[in-house]
Amino acid sequence: MSKELLNKHTAGVLGAVINQPHWKKDELSNNLKKVLVDMRENAGSPEIYLDTLLRNVTFLFENTNRALSLLKFCVEEEKFMTQESFQQAMLEVPKLVKETNFFAENMPRFKELVYKGSTIEEQVTHGEFVYCNSKLVNDMVIDFIGTFLHPNNREFMINFMEYASVVTVETVMEFCKTYSSHMLKELNSME
Hints:
By secondary structure, the protein is mostly helical. The protein is globular, with a radius of gyration of 18 Å. The mean pLDDT is 94.
């Protein structure tokens, strides 16, 4: 199968994913704003808030990477795991983070990404954008894989297993990043 067909299939699945009620612009915007307000209020200072954003971005990257590694495994092995197995594997991420030096070891890698700007206000604004983008990409990847693993979709999803696992995972991630970017632009234009 061609790369164009893989792109078409990926776009089709993600199109179905983002047509779900929880992806509607108003609800999505309200949910993101609520999370940011809660984080800001719990932080107490802009510096702590920025650190909280960094911690969350670091966690989301790990969560997304775990999900993508499970998708990659399915494609490599050419078999579907159950949705329950996927959910159980994803529950391991918070345990790993909690039981190890995960944040101390990984937050420095993302600090440059999150802490952009010459003032704390600019850094917070940028950090919020990075967080929202990371959250949307993560949620889209999780929803894509949930759709991929759903037993009713397997006849169609088997098409994704005709490609090298790296190609499939890169394509899914590329589309999720693109869709997230478009969504954030739309949400920002609504304000």
